[in-house]
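Subject: Sanity check before I submit

Could someone independently write out the structure tokens for this chain? I want to compare against mine line by line before I put it in a report. The sequence has 479 residues.
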Amino acid sequence: MKDYLKFYINGQWVDPVTPKTLDVENPATEEPFARISVGSKADVDKAVKAARAAFEKYSQTSVKERLDLLGQIMSVYQKRSDDMAHAVSEEMGCPLWLSKAAQVGLGINHLRQAIESLKAYQFERMQGTTLIRKEPIGVCGFITPWNWPLNQIGCKVAPALATGCTMILKPSEIAPINAYIYSEVLAEAGVPAGVYNMINGDGPGVGQALASHPGIDMMSITGSERAGIAVAKAAADTIKRVAQELGGKSPNIILDDADLSKAIPATIMPVMMNSGQSCNAPTRMLVPENLHDQVVAIAKGVVEGVKQADPMTGGPGTQGPVVSKAQWDKIQRLIKAGIDEGATLVAGGLGRPEGFNRGYYVKPTVFANVKNDMTIAREEIFGPVLSILKYKDIEDAIRIANDTDFGLAGYVQSSDVKKAQAVAKRIRAGQININAAPGDSNAPFGGYKHSGNGREWGSLGFEEFLEVKAVVGFEPKVA
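---
Independent answer below. Compare away.
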């Protein structure tokens, strides 16, 4: 059992005000492997005081100073990349090959993108005789999730540092060790005292204290719809800005001219990757009625080829467990709901995969003949479960795609790019992917409707951390 019992506040590793610990479980073994401290409002008060004091100086640093700091962070981050990859695999069950390639890699991408965006970003411009100036918003509170932890920490911390803000991070208490190492990286890189602070804890104890604190100017949360609502309510009394990246139930429209042999495997794997624990996964596959059975046959073959393995030893392409018993139980409940409500179970189903008698492993599962009013088409399952739905024509497909409370992402597959573009414009979601295009870390990421508000990633992600000031008459009017 390893202990990670201190918090990082004001440039120092400190004990919590009130000692209280929590075990961190390895989902592959169902055994605790580490302990963290659980913080409280008193710890938040200390961190906010440090961040407010540091803001006065850090907000006035030059672009060059911040570029140099981000470059140093990136250098130390890369040095610790193996440590972070092992932590992610041990605490959330992500296969080590994926932790190295994607979990750690996305954190590097956000640092790199923040550097490139900062080099080009215009913090001031003239509009006639008025100066339009963008200034750091102040002290930021961050609440990050367990599913892509380094990605979500990176896409908050990197732009906040780039724009001159100070911050307090509360990582997920389910997968907190990677954040502890991330904090060690920032400390070694020389982030000034108080600029970055980290407190472990749960939502009611630390998250609520951050969201309601009058000394915090902005909250950014990535998490469930329930958590996003709670943060927004807690933040309302102090009228702080709230950015939320929440759940998704993303449609994947397969048009009738798509190359099914390519489109189906390419868009099933994002559902299965990371054991289905991705908020933007294309979990609702919409197919023309006359192609339904053909698509189902391809999907069955693809999913039955997905193999489970121990996260530390499984080879490329293998799948690990989901993060916790609570998550496993939720997925089982929703798979059962799909069966009970009359969807056709094509692959997978209830229980652990064959050969696994412990660990929170889930059978990769496909349902066909799904109706959009079924539970598995409405609720975010957050597991390796695909629903295949029929549509009559493009208008029907767009109607079904938009008939959801969520709007985080959408996908379109077609051999006719113009047709795909037209459909993409009509999906009510924050990021649309055409024909399994590679990701773009400069593209804004965020959602419509219950998927939240605000945007992260790239230059547009900077906007969440900036206030706009107009200085009228900055330059005198020339006669």
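---
OP: Matches mine. For the report I'm noting this point. Residues 2-246+452-471 form a domain with the Aldehyde Dehydrogenase; Chain A, domain 1 fold (CATH 3.40.605.10).
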